Amino acid sequence: MRSLGGAGFDLVDGVLASVLRRRMLNGGESVLVAVSGGPDSTCLLDVLARLEEKLDLQIAVAHVDHGLSPESSEVAARVARDTAALGYDVHVARAHDLAGPNLQARARDFRYAFFTSIAGDIGSGYIVTGHTLDDRVETTLARLLHGSGTSGLAGLRPVEGPRVRPLIDVRRSDTKAYCEEVGLEFYEDPTNEDHRFDRARVRSHLVETIESHWGAGAVKAIATSAERLAEDAAAFTLLGERLSADLIQTGQDGPVIKLDLLRGLPRALRRRVLESAIGRVRDRSGGIDAALDALDDEHAVPPLRFSVASGKEIVLDKDHLTVLEPTGG
Description:
Shape: elongated
Low-confidence stretches: none
Mean pLDDT: 90
CATH architecture of the largest domain: 3-Layer(aba) Sandwich
Strand content: 5-15%
Largest sheet: 6 strands, mixed
Structural class: alpha/beta
CATH superfamily of the largest domain: HUPs
Order of helices and strands: HEHEHEHEHHEEHHHEEHHHEEE
Radius of gyration: 23 Å
């Protein structure tokens, strides 16, 4: 069991304060720590080892060898060795057949499927990852470029279901400095600088430019904005759920909403009610926005029809909005 004090104590103390303030862990939990071998997750595991007694944690470790670099098997062996030295069980998987388009997404899906499976097998209620403040900012900026709404722009949350991010208030440069100060070996993944991937481009072209022109405070300010957006998104989601339960009725052809009630809401809440009626689809055709625009267009003459994903349609008549399921759906 690692000592709480000593080299790197300021970061350890800051992580403890963040964990407690954000109620990430209450103490006494069994946690599965995802360790890639990079500076962030290497720092994370060492910090949690030092907080193990303070938080009464039961720690296990998981690592995925994606096989995407010549050093990947060596990194997996080092993670297993260092984890054993700390006295923890480690679970290692080797990913196969990741080649092809959207490599990062497939690697992420494989990784989290493995983490979820292991957590279930060993009874861990939490999957703990080494995402930092920089990761949160990069996610927010990347989603801004793709036109995300409030929830998407909130980026990475400190806690999302079983996923916990104790380093969410820590800069990436500080995790590397911690490893060097404490004397921890880590691996610098070359894909972090590969501009074929959105995250690397956002990091080098946006975050580094922002920091060089406006200072580190600007990067932290973006993280603060993401935090506020997360709060707003949670509030709107709750309101949307309550309104949806009251306004959406079951019709013969699909969900039905009375237009006078829908028009009485701000557009942000109209959107959430309509999305709830439609279900989880990616509306690439823009049917939802077109329907929302029509609600405010006094010159629009019903009936009006708007296509959305998965073959669904929004139909506006004089008094109602109906979501039609695809034929045979």
